[in-house]
Amino acid sequence: MSFKGFVYYLGLDLGGAAEYSALAIVEESVWADPSGWASPSDLSPDYLDHILGRARQRGRPPNPLLSVRHLERFEPGTSYPQIVDRVGELIHTPPLAGKPTILLVDKTGVGAGVIEHFERRYPYREIGYPTPITIHGGSEVTIDLERGGFRVPKLDLVGSVQLLLQTSRVKVAASLPEAETLRRELLSFRVKIDPKTASDSYSHWREGMHDDLVLATAMACWYREWKNGLMEIHYANKEREREETYP
Fold first, then answer.
1. Rounded to an integer, what distance in angstroms lies between the CA atom of residue 35 and that of residue 38?
2. Distance between CA atoms of residues 112 and 15, nearest Å
3. Average pLDDT of 160-172?
4. 108 part of a folded domain
5. Does 119 fall in a domain?
6. Per-residue pLDDT tens for 55-82?
7. CATH no. for residue 184?
8. Over the stretch 209-223, which tens digit does the pLDDT of each residue have?
């Protein structure tokens, strides 16, 4: 199967020994012309590859719907090898099995060691291009040259998922067991501007709130929007060319 883009984005936020870790899986709808947008979960890997290739050649409408398909929290004390095995299990199970998938791993704390465990546990690229995300309080996205990942401001991460929710471009199924927890985490965020440094700092509305699910979801959503910006331009240009050629 040739690479034509991702359709599943996994965000893995890793907590310390006394904290929750969390996993979020975000699905991107695909353009199955002439029937319209479709869920990749309903398509075979071969047919999905076909319509992704056709979209690259002919274009498609912009801004596909994103859907949070899975939310999972790992209790404090869950070992990192257990988390690695669980993520591998999901990637090898339908609907993800055989579909183009990318795994975004929080490298900020213990993430570097967990990424190494992923690489030892699974053959190259078998678990969806594990890509490190280092979360920081600055203002710029930079490339992490050490492992080919990214250094991303927390404001960009949380802002991306909030914007998608406000514009109804991402849906969270109410039936997901952790959907209400994610909603509370999103509502709990606020941004404070430090008048001395003019830098962004973050706090919760109430002490004791967690941010694991929102960061897991935000990493997946941010990567999709940031990485696919140029791809959206490509799709739009191709569709415009087709419309001009076949009015």
1. 8
2. 13
3. 92
4. yes
5. yes
6. 888 888 888 999 999 999 999 999 999 9
7. 3.30.420.240
8. 578 999 999 999 999
